[in-house]
Design a protein that fits this description.
By secondary structure, this protein is an alpha/beta fold. The protein folds into three domains: 359 residues, Alkaline Phosphatase, subunit A, CATH 3.40.720.10; 58 residues, Arylsulfatase, C-terminal domain, CATH 3.30.1120; 171 residues, Vitelline Membrane Outer Layer Protein I, subunit A, CATH 2.100.10. The protein contains 13 helices and 28 strands. Keywords: Calcium, Hydrolase, Metal-binding, Signal.
Length: 645
């Protein structure tokens, strides 16, 4: 349930869509082709619109859209060749082609991570049809080659904007500015707004955060404390965003921020729709709301999108506008089918060579969709087929199947793959899966001759005591500095010390801590990554799990023997800069621009060597963990080293 004291506030403060407002229609587009607005969020589960059945989330503007539009209830991301599922998803949306066409080419050319900017992409086709095209949104893991084909393209700063809570506001403000200052006011327009959230960092507004009580949030019925086997991505980047075991409290805390971030996006979408209403353009605009994929958020014991369960790969999709019926379109479609669908709905010729298929008839009348089955894929480790009410998941590296009847078991809890009465169905679905692979250019064998066991034991680490004195923060609230326990929950009672060790003789190369303030007295760590390496140019080993190539990690130049004197940063509503203070007094920032609000600095007070002395070998970090309501909190932090003899 929602925080009931805020229900009235929601309806008044967050509902911006104006229905029958009587505002002057001063900028109505001349009759002809409709405008097109694509609202594309990042990492948003299909079950995160209140009007579609989620009583725990607040989305008044998406609710209004759903009430007048068509809910495409089985919209899927086809798959990904990387952990950043968002990149191939966005490339497929804008190219209308499967990612196998450029990541697994059959002509001997080098595999690419981006679809080529050829003549029949979505922006190129709509440019040629007389539309003024506009793009704004996230920069990392996107279809950057195709973005260049929009007449207007803008990016968020992946650091400053995304950590500022203002990313959604900026995207919408700039979109409204575009509508006001268009180069071709008499032509129709197409806008593709690629929001960067609710992907972490989950920068929800304070108003949205206050609307939720974590204890009243209903959990999905398929949450588990861990995944029962190794699906090929049980310890990937996204899986380190929550501790093991994934307790109900851990997941409610996660959903609290996740839902609040979606509510924040909803408010900005409402502002844009209200602006269209005031211009008299709302009824002339085809509006598509969807996301690049879903997100685990504890379902099946998984946090990320690197899985082919419904929670990971199904996206929300609502379409409203001229000619679109109200109701539900239940047949499965791909996100890449949106491109030819928009062409058909706007009267633009559908280009040749697309893998996407138009589902416009589903939107204009109650007819069947263009596909009898869809293939889902993740790297070389997972394949799935959805055909009718049945879904078969195949794990080729461990020769394992899962079979679900989605009509009876939409949460995918009852695996029927070992039921002898279903053996012929499994064989039928496997055969159809291979057909779809062939059609879409997927060459992955579905059987391994030397499969791995698939066993998965969630990380659990005994925390070793440290004999070194700890660091202490210089601002109040240090006991509330919460660490996302990347290697397992601390064992023991309050005050248990811990030590993170590097490999013997290995120099410290980098550290990154992602922090976000969740209340005036609490700063939660989103990530805590330590990298060890002798040379910054060599491949780096992640000591505490994380992506060693992430752009926001600072690197210390070992060639210049910089000595760590402390960890510094600046705290505002969001801590958006964190880095090192080195021995020459200069800072090595981690990301973004620091806020001037509430600066803090964590220093090692009596660092036991002088400038010019031989540098000790750093071994890791030490400190004290405080147990609070089942959550591991960092009370203090220090540097562990071997003194020079």
């Amino acid at each position: 349930m929602l925080n009931s004291t805020h229900r009235t506030i929601v309806s008044l403060a967050f509902l911006f869509v104006i229905v029958g407002s009587g505002l002057a229609a001063e900028e109505r587009k001349p009759s002809g082709k409709p405008n097109v607005l694509i609202l594309f969020t990042d990492d948003q589960r299909a079950d995160t619109i209140a009007a579609l059945g989620n009583d725990s989330i607040i989305t008044p503007n998406l609710d209004k859209l759903a009430e007048r539009g068509c809910h495409v209830s089985s919209a899927y991301c086809l798959g990904a060749n990387m952990g950043a599922v968002c990149r191939p998803s966005r490339n497929m949306l804008l190219s209308g082609r499967t990612y196998f066409r450029w990541s697994n080419p059959t002509d001997g050319s080098r595999p690419e991570n981006n679809a080529p900017a050829i003549a029949n992409t979505l922006p190129a086709v709509f440019n040629a049809a007389g539309y003024e095209t506009y793009h704004h949104g996230k920069q990392g893991n996107t279809a950057q080659l195709i973005h260049k084909q929009f007449a207007h393209t803008h990016y968020l700063d992946d650091f400053a904007d995304r950590w500022s809570m203002e990313a959604g506001r900026k995207v919408v403000d700039d979109a409204i500015s575009f509508l006001t200052t268009r180069n071709k006011p008499e032509s129709p327009w197409l806008m593709y707004l690629a929001f960067a959230t609710p992907h972490d960092p989950r920068a929800a507004s304070p108003e949205a955060l206050a609307m939720y009580d974590a204890q009243e949030i209903s959990l999905p019925e398929n949450v588990k404390d861990s995944h029962p086997f190794d699906n090929g991505s049980v310890i990937g980047r996204d899986e380190w965003t929550a501790v093991w075991p994934r307790t109900n409290q851990v997941l409610r805390d996660q959903l609290h921020d996740y839902y609040a971030t979606i509510t924040t996006i909803d408010s900005h979408i409402g502002r844009l729709l209200a602006d269209l209403e005031s211009r008299g353009q709302l009824d002339d605009t085809l509006i598509v709301f969807t996301s690049d994929h879903g997100l685990g958020m504890g379902s099946h014991g998984l946090m990320g999108k690197q899985n082919v369960y419904e929670d990971g790969y199904k996206a929300p999709m609502v379409i409203a506008g001229p000619g679109v019926r109200h109701g539900v379109a239940p047949d499965p479609v791909y996100l890449m089918d949106m491109f030819p669908t928009l062409c058909e709905l706007t009267g633009v010729d559908v280009p040749e060579g697309l893998d996407g298929r138009s589902f416009a008839p589903m939107l204009t009348s109650d007819t069947k969709g263009p596909r009898d089955a869809v293939l889902l894929s993740y790297t070389q480790t997972q394949r799935a087929i959805r055909m009718g009410n049945w879904k078969l998941i195949r794990y080729p590296k461990i020769n394992r199947n899962q079979l679900f009847n989605l009509a009876d078991d939409p949460a995918e809890l009852n695996d029927l793959s070992d039921d002898p009465t279903q053996s012929s169905r499994v064989a039928e679905l496997m055969a159809r899966m291979r057909q779809l692979q062939s059609e879409q250019g997927d060459t992955l064998p579905l059987i391994s001759e030397s499969p791995s066991s698939g066993e998965f034991i969630p990380p659990q680490v005994e925390i070793a005591a440290s004999e070194l004195p700890p660091l202490h923060a210089s601002q109040p609230g240090e006991r509330d500095l919460q660490m996302t326990d990347m290697v397992g929950r601390a064992k023991g009672s309050e005050g248990k010390p811990f030590t993170v060790l590097l490999k013997d003789g290995e120099k410290l190369s980098a550290i990154a801590v992602g922090l976000t303030r969740t209340s005036p007295a609490s700063v939660s760590a989103l990530r805590f990554d330590v990298i060890g390496s002798d040379n910054r140019d060599e491949s780096r080993r992640t000591v505490i799990a994380g992506d060693p190539n992430a752009r926001w990690m600072p690197l210390l130049d070992q060639m210049h023997r910089q000595q760590i004197a402390g960890i510094h940063g600046a705290a505002g509503t969001i801590v958006n800069q964190l880095g090192f203070t080195v021995d020459n007094g200069k800072s090595v920032p981690a990301w973004g621009n620091a806020s001037d609000e509430s600066p803090f600095q964590v220093m090692y007070g009596d660092f036991p060597y002088r400038k010019g002395d031989p540098q000790p070998t750093f071994k890791g970090f030490c400190g004290t963990i405080v147990e609070s309501s089942g959550t591991s909190l960092i009370e203090s932090l220090g540097i562990l080293y071997l003194p020079v003899e």
